[in-house]
Design a protein that fits this description.
Layout lengths: L1 E4 L10 E4 L9 E10 L2 H7 L16 E9 L11 E5 L8 E5 L3 E3 L6 H6 L1 H14 L7 E4 L5 H12 L3 E6 L2 H9 L4 E4 L5 H8 L5 E6 L3 H7 L3 E9 L13 H6 L2 E4 L2 H7 L1 H16 L7 E6 L3 H9 L6 E5 L1
Parallel strand pairs: 8-9, 8-11, 9-10, 11-12, 12-13, 14-15
Antiparallel strand pairs: 1-2, 3-4, 3-6, 3-15, 4-5, 5-7
The structure holds NADP nicotinamide-adenine-dinucleotide phosphate.
Amino acid sequence: MKAIVCHEFGAPDKLTFADIDSPRVRGGEIKVRVRACGVNFPDVLMVQGLYQLKPDFPFSPGLEVAGEVIEVGGGVDGFKSGDRVIGIVNYGGFAEEVVVPAALTLPMPDNMSYEHGAAFPIAYGTSHIALTHRAHLNAGETLLVLGAAGGVGLTAVELGKLLGATVIAAASSEGKLAVTRQYGADYTIQYTTEDLRERVKAITGGRYADVIYDPVGGDAFDAAIRCVAWEGRYLVIGFASGRIPEVPVNRLLLKNSSLVGLYWGAYTLNNPAVIQRSFQTLMNWYGEGKLKPHIDRTLPLAQAADALNALAKREAKGKWVLVP
Ligand SMILES: NC(=O)c1ccc[n+]([C@@H]2O[C@H](COP(=O)([O-])OP(=O)(O)OC[C@H]3O[C@@H](n4cnc5c(N)ncnc54)[C@H](OP(=O)(O)O)[C@@H]3O)[C@@H](O)[C@H]2O)c1
């Protein structure tokens, strides 16, 4: 089968598009013919050796796929060849075939395209668990989303509106902010040219934001940590800016606020029930037409490096998807 292969850590251009053996299925696993795979910032980090998980070489990046079941391992109930599924893996998704743990395989609704299926689990799963299970966002509260037109950011805008929040979207260009308005953002801030704190203060009448969703870190964190409301919750999602910030903890004390970490992948090991409940809700909302994954670009699998470079250069809006 064809796959994108990483032989050494480095820039995405070092990846090769090669013929490799199809992975073997063991008990508790399912082999999927990949029809589409989602691209995520962690893929950019993983091929450079900058992600917390560093697989042995050679490996294929790719965390989420949609496709059809082609083989079912021992002890797996509920799936058969031909079923349309979404799969979540630690890596290996940028390939024509991938083996997925049955526990991380989801039936795909009939009305869902493979592109939507591949763009769905990580972005929506991360934002949903962050906003509900971790930050307890309430209807009527104000949510500030940084990197709001990115993969996870845009789903935070969309879900924030669905949960009844007033959403302030912050992003680096007017083109990105326009996309966030399509997804329901009530207010937008171009945080590379405007003073984030002054704008959030003016928009909220001096109360600031009850929940802040931050996949960016770096300078954006330094500005946004000063935008937390009384008893607010600051969600640490990621560091796409490349800098892990430090927090003056007196800010938390003064505002009776909380800094809340969220690593979605850790729930697959530590508490899969949280992910399963979240997906049930998200799939119901998708079925009701309440969620519309934003597919910015779909590229052939062979062009994976172009997609990873687009994310690294801050060019992507919503999700990019690769099709084998
Ligand atoms: N905690 C979790 O479980 C979890 C799950 C998935 C992803 N993540 C993390 O969340 C972050 C975003 O992931 P994603 O897949 O949504 O990525 P993405 O689509 O590339 O979005 C990242 C956003 O970060 C902003 N950004 C600011 N400085 C940047 C820089 N120097 N390079 C690239 N982007 C920059 C960009 O928005 P502007 O241009 O508007 O600033 C961009 O839209 C990553 O750090 C990722 O590792 C965490």
